[in-house]
Write a structure and sequence with these properties.
2 domains, six-stranded mixed β-sheet, five-stranded parallel β-sheet, 13 helices, globular, binds adenosine-5'-diphosphate, binds magnesium ion, ATP-binding, P-loop_NTPase
Length: 350
Amino acid sequence: MVPSEIYTARVAAGELKPDDAQTAVLPEFDRIANELAKPVKRGFFRRAPDPIQGLYLWGGVGRGKSMLMDLFVSGLSVPARRVHFHAFMQEIHEAIHEARARGVDDPIKPVADAISDSVRCLAFDEMQITDITDAMIVGRLFEQLFAAGVVVVTTSNRVPDDLYKHGLNRDLFVPFIGLLKDKMVVHELASPTDYRQDRLAGSDVYFTPVDQKARAAMDAAWAALADGDGAPLTLRVKGHDLLIPRFHNGVARAKFFDLCGKHLGAADYLMLAETAKVLLLDDVPRLGRSNFNEAKRFVTLIDALYEAGTRLICSAAAAPELLYVEGEGTFEFERTSSRLREMQSADWGL
Ligand SMILES: Nc1ncnc2c1ncn2[C@@H]1O[C@H](COP(=O)(O)OP(=O)(O)O)[C@@H](O)[C@H]1O
Ligand SMILES: [Mg+2]
């Protein structure tokens, strides 16, 4: 089935609400799916398949970009890979590192070859460039992928011209934007509806105490928002790795100690807040003298989420005001509990 047929079926089944802006982009997905389905002509001089214009789908959060991309990938019969852009770049850096260690002069080449040998379509969720090491290699990497006939479909919150905005050495990055516009159809998903907000509206986001009921509620929230099992996601922050245990469609899930029980700091939480639209945080304990460092990190985490407008859904041992009542920094914690309260309101964030 082509994407528009899958979409129609899901609307008919009541799983999706019909949306004009989403419907408007389906012909692009159909076109790519149909092109990919054609057999590749392999002549004597085994050349790359004819170029197929990819799709750069951008727009505000919760509009259904990831959902549409998943729907497209699910209907493909050619080898394709759907991956979060951060995770993909992480792998690229590792592969380049290995190639260098083997003494390869131009390490991007074998890395691009390995990808184009294994897939015909790459589907990236949330393309964004925040890191100079990414910015400096994507141009040559994608040039080679496109030249080998790999079709790229991507979602992003930003229009191509705004990628890596204000980034260091941006002039070296700018040709990549031209390449994207050349090889992909740029389409804005301008739906008026934020479906994620809709799914969150009216539902509880703070569960206390941490009991069976709270766990079930957290699992239900994950099921409603993430639309899938999710996979671990490793983010690279200032030379070290930040592991998010579960991530899918902009929704992250971690336990309190995964994030606040390790030596992580503001940069990590900012990166997390930038990457996730919603964080599901399980098992926030009562905080006090014995876990002062964890409490401090929790304050930093909440500040980062608050600033970025990331929604927080959590299970906690007590109400916000009762989480941290004794020990150093209880005064500062008042801001955190107040923010936790504010972040519970239905219209907060997003
Ligand atoms: N037409 C629709 N009807 C019902 N739910 C939708 C529709 N479009 C998207 N959703 C749901 O809304 C949530 C947000 O969609 P998502 O694709 O993750 O948005 P984006 O990637 O644009 O931020 C997901 O849970 C998704 O399944
Ligand atoms: Mg998304």
